[in-house]
Amino acid sequence: MIYRTLGKTGLRVSIVGYGASPLGAEFGKIDPEEGRRAVHHAIDCGINYFDVAPYYGRTLAETRLGEFLVGKRHQVILATKVGRYDIDQFDYSARCVVSSVDESLRRLRTDFIDVIQIHDIEYGDRAQIVHETLP
Q1: Rounded distance, CA 113 to CA 49, Å?
Q2: Domain range holding 129?
Q3: Which of 34, 63, 72, 88 is the most exposed place for a label (fewest CB within 10 A)?
Q4: CA distance 34 to 42
Q5: Residue pLDDT tens, the chain, 135 long
Q6: If DSSP codes are grouped into helix, strand and coil, which group holds residue 22?
Q7: pTM for the full model?
Q8: Which CATH number characterizes residue 90's domain?
Q9: Vertex 66: Cα angle to 25 and 37 (nearest 5)
Q10: Domain count, the chain
Q11: Alpha-carbon distance 130 to 135, whole Å?
């Protein structure tokens, strides 16, 4: 696997990442054991960048990924998102962002998340995102 540095973070990420939205049944039902095997196979193949969001499966993807990464957390760069929580539910307020990160930490069964992204930023109030979400 080829790895590159992610921006100025110093994080070395695989050039192929694992998008975990299917673990939340975003595109149809998935057998949880098949999801577990897919996550473990990705790690075995050298994929270390895992991307998920509370929106995917309305928290199911984060919950499953957290379960599947037990004992393997140190092998991955974990990214999740804030701001979008349902089809028409967006909240980029600082209060919601902090709460969302805390909830993601619990679902992902970890004490840190490597990368936090703002989900579907185009639906947010840009001034709020710049002055409240980002700081």
Answers
A1: 12
A2: 3-133
A3: 88
A4: 12
A5: 999 999 999 999 999 999 999 999 999 999 999 999 999 999 999 999 999 999 999 999 999 999 999 999 999 999 999 999 998 999 999 999 999 999 999 999 999 999 999 999 898 888 888 888 887
A6: helix
A7: 0.93
A8: 3.20.20.100
A9: 65
A10: 1
A11: 7
